[in-house]
């Protein structure tokens, strides 16, 4: 078996280990497994908002028949499975162009975007450092601005003329 075969076996083993639930915390598991993988020559790619799935996956390494391990969103501390699933589903047809684009298309609450930002998940594809991603997230709002809320409430108020009950008239015309 050549070098690439050994490399692919090591990558596959790492992917399986990282994708299983471990009894130690996620950060420790990620550090231990990635350090061991790198020691054995396996390329480990970070969690990416545009490429990671829930579990770790194997990605081809350009120009070789080897594979790298892409860390999965399960390793992002505090990120709910449902939120990760919404992110993955929203980017199925097209990668996210920005934090705002990801938030609008995925429908994930703003508070849930902090965890991927803290894990630098916006860095590899959107080129946003942690601090820049957090600033972009702070600009988002799950609830509408007060001015728009007041307008929506006014529109929702019922106008009496619009809520009159349906009346059926039984008109009998007397014979002439």
UniProtKB/TrEMBL annotation:
Keywords in alphabetical order: Nucleotidyltransferase, Transferase
Top-rank taxon, per record: Bacteria
Gene3D superfamilies with a match to the protein in the record: 1.10.150.870
A Pfam family assignment: HHH_6
Primary enzyme class: transferase
Residue ranges occupied by any DNA polymerase helix-hairpin-helix motif domain in the UniProt entry: 41-132
Annotated GO MF terms: DNA-directed DNA polymerase activity
Name this protein carries in UniProt: Error-prone DNA polymerase
């Amino acid at each position: 078996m050549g070098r690439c075969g050994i490399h692919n076996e090591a990558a596959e083993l790492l992917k399986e280990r990282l994708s299983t639930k471990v009894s130690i915390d996620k950060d420790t598991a990620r550090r231990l497994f990635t350090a061991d993988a790198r020691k054995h020559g396996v390329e480990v790619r970070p969690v990416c908002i545009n490429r990671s799935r829930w579990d770790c996956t194997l990605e081809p390494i350009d120009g070789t028949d080897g594979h790298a391990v892409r860390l999965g969103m399960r390793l992002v501390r505090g990120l709910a499975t449902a939120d990760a699933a919404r992110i993955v589903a929203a980017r199925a047809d097209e990668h996210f162009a920005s934090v705002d684009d990801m938030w609008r298309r995925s429908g994930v609450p703003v508070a849930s975007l902090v965890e991927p930002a803290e894990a630098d998940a916006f860095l590899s594809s959107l080129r946003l450092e942690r601090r820049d991603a957090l600033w972009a997230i702070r600009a988002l709002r799950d609830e509408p601005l007060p001015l728009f809320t007041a307008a929506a409430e006014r529109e929702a108020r019922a106008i009496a003329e619009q809520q009159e009950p349906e009346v059926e008239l039984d008109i009998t015309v007397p014979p002439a």
